[in-house]
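Tutorial, part two.
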Amino acid sequence: MEQGISVFQQGRLYRRKGTGSEYTGDYVTEQFYFGNATAGADNSIAGAVTGSKIRILSYSLSCVSAGAATVRFYSNPSATVHPISQTITLAANQFVSESSAFGLFETFTSESLVVVPTTNIVGVRVTWIYTD
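Running the prediction step on this input gives:
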């Protein structure tokens, strides 16, 4: 395995630091966000860290208004630059969630994570880690 790969060992998520068979890296601290995302705007979820990527472990979205909404996650503050997720379509009052211990998608190096609903206000919960 290569350096920088994450793995679960004894119930904790570690980043690989060495080249041997043991995962001797640091324990990774999960970060959390929840709030409402405004339609048509870059809604910042996580700030950029120089030299790191933001790996999304889970998200949940809920359409909090009477109308439908579409949502997409982006890497970078400008929503037109780097889409990193598929377009997620929500019916009125619908809830959707997805998770993976090893990550669903990640930003480009040194870029922030934003979410942009195209219509209506969307409730957002995200769990992520910073990784190499």
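DSSP finds no helices and twelve strands in the chain. In part three we will examine how such features are distributed along the chain.
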